[in-house]
Amino acid sequence: MEIEEAIARAKKNNQKAFNYLLDKFWDDVYGFQLKRTQNENDAEDITIQTFSKAFDRIETFNEKYTFKTWLITISKNIHIDLLRKEKNSITQVISKDDRNMFQVLDESPSPEDKLITEQHLAKLLRDIKKLKPHYQEVINLRYFQELSYKEISEELDEPINNVKVKLLRAKKLLAEIIQEK
């Protein structure tokens, strides 16, 4: 699939086209943000928000420009907005830090962990635990608790498109972990 074709399909809400664009441009946007933020988690969060916003507004993309440049511009603007918010509100920084601490420290076994008895499921769970906590959480909510995108969005207090992008990325990373073995 060519980029132009993928964009045209994405404008028609084709999920495979979104996957293609995400795979094709993830490293470019993530690398750009990693240089700006010097922090893997922040770079990943901004990259997820970038794709979420881009996919939400794909119909506004002008073919006169390159798609990568459009994504980088969105990414840069999201980063600038986040910096402004952090500068204007110390409580946001504190609550952000608290949330990050909570994600790192909360490694208690979930109800699903206790119910797992089959070896294949246990192996899959071990692979899932190799993912970052926010990816573990979205996979858990979608596939173990069987919540809808809307329910996950409400649970995580994030836009639905962020949830979709996070889940896409989590599945891709999990597939890579499984293929390594």
From TrEMBL:
GO biological process: DNA-templated transcription initiation
Signal peptide from the UniProt entry: none
Domain RNA polymerase sigma-70 region, first and last residues per copy: 27-87
Domain RNA polymerase sigma factor 70 region 4 type: 125-174
Transmembrane segments: none
Entry GO MF terms: DNA binding; sigma factor activity
This protein's record includes keyword Magnesium: no
Pfam families named in the record: Sigma70_r2 (PF04542), Sigma70_r4_2 (PF08281)
Keyword Membrane: no
Keywords: Sigma factor, Transcription, Transcription regulation
PANTHER family registered for this protein in UniProt: RNA POLYMERASE ECF-TYPE SIGMA FACTO, RNA POLYMERASE SIGMA FACTOR
NCBIfam families: sigma70-ECF
Similarity annotation: Belongs to the sigma-70 factor family. ECF subfamily.
Name of protein: RNA polymerase sigma-70 factor, ECF subfamily
Species assigned in the record: Algibacter luteus
